[in-house]
Design a protein that fits this description.
homodimer, alpha/beta, D-Maltodextrin-Binding Protein, domain 2, 3 domains, 10-stranded mixed beta sheet, two-stranded antiparallel sheet, 12 strands, DNA-binding
Chain lengths: ~300, ~300
DNA sequence: ACCCTATTATAAATTATTTTTATGTGGACT
DNA sequence: AGTCCACATAAAAATAATTTATAATAGGGT
């Protein structure tokens, strides 16, 4: 069986018109007719049915079943091409969430450069959900993912390499600045400045407010932790961030949370279980684990 | 690209010998050579390498990457064939764990017969792990699965339809027979007769003994709940089973467990997310939900 | 009722692809 | 040096896919 036939059929289920599909692929119309006939013979079933009354093409039950599988075969093949291309080019594409890229990547990059691996590395940015899809679709080889729950997906091999608590950051002028530790419930009447672009931060924060039964007063949301920290320094409000964002500023104080069963910011290295790691990629993994785990 | 080439290559990665693969497929040796050359051209990479010194065939990095994807494409195609065959034959294959088959299926079968659906249904038995693989590999369309944790797999659509506690069953002559409820920790010095063939029962039982810090005295393990119940009736020991196994015998007494956070026997209906349900299969699902959920 | 159009099917010819047959090559083993 | 093993190559043969040309079918318009 030829993959091309599956491709023709897949398009046919989308466009529902033999002639248009033929044009789409730059072939003549009988080519499509014959391809569908081949598939119908191979699977010994009718795949499509013409409805002349409504002038449309109906896909049969078995046709829809084939379409589902055809889609996933075609996707798998596309991933295969992408992966092998990257392997032959000796390139690795690494998916990085912005937080990790901002605060850790300089260190990682320095180590990789020392090993001569930086040239072969290309990064793409994105939130955890986006990067999970990018991994799945073969758009990147390895990704770092932030999460609150341990990640569990059959198609992904996941190594958690770091668990970090979330902390509260307040201005040095803030009444709480002389505290070292506190409970989240003490923050009931505070003004919050929050990180907008992190699904993980927001989920963790919502968990804590819900558990402590209060509606937080969120005065501002920003997409950049520097902006948040500057606002906190000016005492516009306080913030809630994972400690990997700790910048050691002397105008901002970090306060630990003492609550039981706090959410944790889990960072994991993930790659497809289907993916064969090259020597270079294994080296990238080692560097990531060393740099990120020990920091 | 022809699927056949992937099949040739897949076998080559297993057998590592062109001539043997040719014989395996009943073709001549150059056929395999040329197929591999086609794939190498398509993916613009070397896939295999001859090691004349050790007289063996090495698969390159990219070759192994292709092999992984080829395997999954070939499996998907096989599933497609199996599914479409069953669709055209109007058959449904239902995977049933023995416990559920023994105690619930008569009721389900009666309802299905009334609807004229029983003839088209074929069942296969097996433990939850086995049935999950059977589902994945297209050997069955729908399966009932027992578990303690909620099931979560990307390729499976899962509906939990019943949660049931585990209970203790003792003989009417047993000192505990006049109790209605008890804590698991009270069973520290009891003799147990356990169900052998259920992964789920054993996991739940182990959870409770570990939590209560004792090593149970297991005097016998059987694969059939009737045998277990007969032994319990004779007061050879007591047992631990989910309540779906309740047989309303008057020589055996069921005792509820009062422990917090008890494990639950979760029964779920599962099918591949890739699977298109036919009208008949949807009817089977409805009957299953009604019969099993309300019991 | 007739023609027109849109859409798909069919047949034969053409072109492309795959497989076979026959033979070559390189190296290990004796 | 000869032989065998394992794979490669070239040309011929066999298959398979595509195109060209044309047919079929049915709905819509007049």
């Amino acid at each position: 069986m030829n993959i091309k036939d599956l491709d023709y059929f897949h398009q046919l289920t989308l466009q529902k018109n033999f002639s248009q599909v033929a044009e789409y692929f730059g072939v003549t119309q009988p080519t499509i007719t014959l391809a569908i006939q081949r598939l119908e013979a191979e699977f010994a079933t009718k795949l499509v049915q013409r409805d002349r009354v409504h002038n449309q093409l109906l896909i049969t039950d078995t046709g829809r079943q084939l379409a589902v599988h055809a889609t996933s075969i075609l996707r798998e093949l596309q991933i295969t091409h992408q992966e092998i291309d990257r392997l032959t080019q000796q390139r690795t594409i690494l998916g990085l969430p912005p937080i990790i890229e901002n605060f850790y990547f300089p260190k990682v990059a320095a180590r990789l450069q020392a090993l001569g691996e930086l040239e072969n590395l290309q990064t793409i940015a994105g939130g955890s959900v986006h990067l999970r899809h990018a991994l799945r679709d073969g758009q990147c080889d390895i990704a770092l993912l932030g999460s609150i729950e341990p990640l569990s997906y059959q198609q992904l091999a996941v190594n958690e390499f770091d668990h970090r608590p979330f902390s509260i950051f307040v201005s040095r002028q803030h009444p709480l600045a002389n505290r070292k530790r506190l409970y989240f419930s003490e923050l009931r009447h505070e003004r919050f400045i929050l990180f907008n672009s992190s699904f993980v931060h927001n989920t963790a924060f919502n968990k804590l407010t819900r558990r402590n039964h209060f509606r937080p007063d969120v005065v501002y949301r920003a997409n950049d932790t520097h902006i948040i920290m500057n606002l906190v320094a000016e005492n516009v409000g306080i913030t809630f961030l994972t400690t990997i964002v700790d910048q050691h500023r002397d105008d901002v104080v970090r306060l630990e949370l003492m609550d039981d069963e706090q959410p944790q910011f889990i960072t994991s290295i993930a790659y497809r279980t289907n993916h064969v790691l090259t020597a270079a990629q294994r080296q990238v993994l080692t560097v990531l684990r060393q740099t990120l785990g020990s920091a």
